[in-house]
Write a structure and sequence with these properties.
single chain, mainly beta, Jelly Rolls, Elongation Factor Tu (Ef-tu), domain 3, 3 domains, six-stranded antiparallel β-barrel, five-stranded antiparallel beta sheet, 2 helices
Length: 309
């Protein structure tokens, strides 16, 4: 099992060619009079939803929500990304959702990896053209049915299990003007994507047996003097600890790579083999240690913290 990291390509407005998700959550902000609770969106370069906190009148662009989120009290509160850009805002828990299909076309430049997280749907289709409206050079269709069938009873009666995370690490990266199309479809209900992360794939070594994955819960459980339990539901995050074996000749490259990604959100994967989707994490590494064990190979330990979700 080969571990890898997808370092991010930051998507700009110009890179997002089209999307079936409309950016019509609320009216686009223009100067005017606003009441407490009014919501407006800022689009070009911002793509956020703002809620009015103080009744006021804006007469020009200096009153834009993104410029008036401070003060005592602030005039606007930045509450969420727009539905269209939720999948591109680099956060867990903000999700683009609509009736099937969810299809986006982007020109991200040369990329070799793609991660789609917090998916809802039955099928994900990914294709890459060598240029805008060019020839398809890569195509992949992934069934998002994660149901495990071990018996005839399961075949007929097991509930559908959604595969929520998907990574592809084999995109051809030689196309500087490539056009990448991502489509999530379903025959019933809405489809959704929480994170669409594209970038460069780099190998981190061979994952050794004993890799661990777990969840840290931030929920609060309180018991009063009479034994009554109250649970305050909060977010949780993944934690992983992997042992990797790498060739000595790769040591400097991997060390420099991880040092440069020390506080950068990346997608880490212990393997791309089916059935190991929990070993996909979107976050940052907490600790990286090298054990110079053998003449031609070294052992490394990598601890990763996923974003709260």
């Amino acid at each position: 099992m080969s571990a890898s990291i997808i370092t991010p390509t930051k998507l700009t407005d110009a890179m997002v060619v089209s999307s079936t998700v409309p950016e019509t959550d609320f009216p686009v902000w223009t100067a005017g009079t606003f009441a407490v609770g009014d919501k407006r969106i800022m689009t070009t370069g911002i793509h956020r939803i703002y809620q009015c906190q103080t009744a006021h009148t804006s007469t020009d662009s200096t009153g834009a929500p993104n410029l008036n989120i401070t003060g005592t009290p602030p005039k606007w509160l930045n509450i969420a990304p727009t539905n269209k850009w939720a999948m591109f805002d680099e956060k867990i828990g903000t999700i683009s959702t609509l009736a099937s299909p969810l299809t986006v076309v982007i020109n991200p430049g040369p990329v070799s990896g793609l991660a789609l997280l917090e998916l809802t749907g039955r099928t994900a289709e990914i294709s890459l053209k060598d240029q805008t409206d060019g020839t398809v050079v890569y195509s992949r269709t992934v069934d998002l049915d994660g149901t495990i069938v071990t018996s005839f009873f399961d075949w007929f009666f097991a509930e559908f299990a959604q595969q929520t995370d998907l990574t592809l690490t084999d995109l051809p990266s030689q196309f500087f003007n490539g056009e990448l199309t991502i489509s999530v479809t379903s025959t019933a209900g809405n489809v959704a994507c929480g994170v669409a992360h594209v970038g460069k794939v780099s190998t981190l070594g061979e994952t050794q047996m004993g890799a661990t994955i777990g969840i840290i819960s931030y929920s609060v459980k309180q018991t009063d003097a009479f034994g009554n339990l109250t649970i305050i539901k909060r977010q949780n995050s993944k934690r992983a600890s992997w042992k990797l074996m790498i060739e000595k000749s790769e040591l400097s490259r991997i060390f420099r790579l991880l040092a440069s990604m020390e506080s950068v959100l990346c997608v880490y994967s212990a393997t791309t083999e089916p059935g190991y989707e929990p070993l996909i994490l979107y976050g940052f590494f907490r600790d990286f240690n090298i054990d110079i064990t053998y003449p031609t190979y070294v052992l490394t330990s990598l601890e990763i913290e996923g974003l709260a979700q």
